[in-house]
Amino acid sequence: MKINGVEISAGTSGSSGSSGTSGSSGTSGSSGTSGYDGNTFILIYDSSLSSPGDPGTPDFRFNVTWTSSPSWMTIDDLDANGKSTDTLLQNLGIPYTVTLTKVSDPTVFKVLIVTGVTDNAGFTFLDVGQITTQGTASSGDTFTVLITKNGSNGSSGTSGINAFPVVEYNTTNLVLGTADASEYLRISGLTEVTVSIPPQSSVTWVADTEIIMEQRASGQLSLSGGTGVTINGPDTSFTRSKEQYSVIAIKRVAENVWTLFGDLDPR
């Protein structure tokens, strides 16, 4: 560029200024409230034993000191987070379990079974029985209170089939004993087989004992009773099995009294 005929050149650029300092960091946001499960409450222990009334928000109270076994407890309708306690406590259905664990020391706890529930204005009254406890607690201690309920028992399974194990005898004279109870005796004999029932004084017969017998061979099974033993049947002459493979049985119906039934010979 020329000024009054004189060539003027542009000057060089000045250096950049230094950067300004960074602004201070903003303050941290406040912490969110602790989360909790639908069946868990945060409550404060009130050791007052004056009455079973409202312990006050957000407290719980027993009728005895912490180290003793309470028979009742009261829980305020609101816990430390403003959560309602009464709906669950009053509608869960007894029995259910209350587990109290000290927040600052989990070795301090108490487990109770709830057997009765009464709704009151501002609090719930619970009839309880102690399952276990550990440690000590003071008024003002904070506890996590967990409410749990066991499922009902399943229905009973179908009863199994009673099976009489098979026992083989080859004899012409058999004296029954307790080892023969609830068994199926297959008795072989080519001639008549005498089967004797000893009295209670000789054998400790169990009430309702049953013994089943099969005439396996040609020898008929002839029943007889020991001293004082009565054998009842359709007829006093019906005391032996009818023929090969006939099945007869005896049932103890009273001390020294047995009933004989089955495929009997009328002779």
In short:
By secondary structure, the chain is mainly beta. It is built from 1 helix and 20 strands.
Describe this structure in words.
It is a single chain. The protein has 2 domains: 40-148; 166-265, Jelly Rolls. The termini are far apart. The strands form 5 sheets. The chain has a 7-stranded mixed β-barrel. It has one helix at residues 86-91; strands at 2-3, 6-7, 40-46, 59-62, 72-76, 96-102, 109-120, 123-134, 142-148, 166-170, 173-175, 184-188, 193-197, 210-215, 221-225, 230-232, 240-241, 247-254, 257-262, 264-265. It is mainly beta and 267 residues long. It is built from 1 helix and 20 strands. It is rod-shaped and about 125 Å long. Helices cover 2% and strands 40% of the residues.
Helix and strand run = EEEEEHEEEEEEEEEEEEEEE
Low-confidence stretches: 31-37
Helical stretch count? 1
Oligomer: single chain
**Radius of gyration based on Cα positions:** 45 Å
Distance between the termini: 157 Å
What's the shape? rod-shaped
Integer average pLDDT: 87
Secondary-structure class: mainly beta
- What percent of the residues sit in helical stretches (DSSP H or I)? under 10%
The total tally of domains equals: 2
Strand order of the largest sheet: 3-4-5-8-7-6-9
Number of strands: 20
Largest sheet: 7 strands, mixed, barrel
Q: Give the strand content.
A: 35-45%
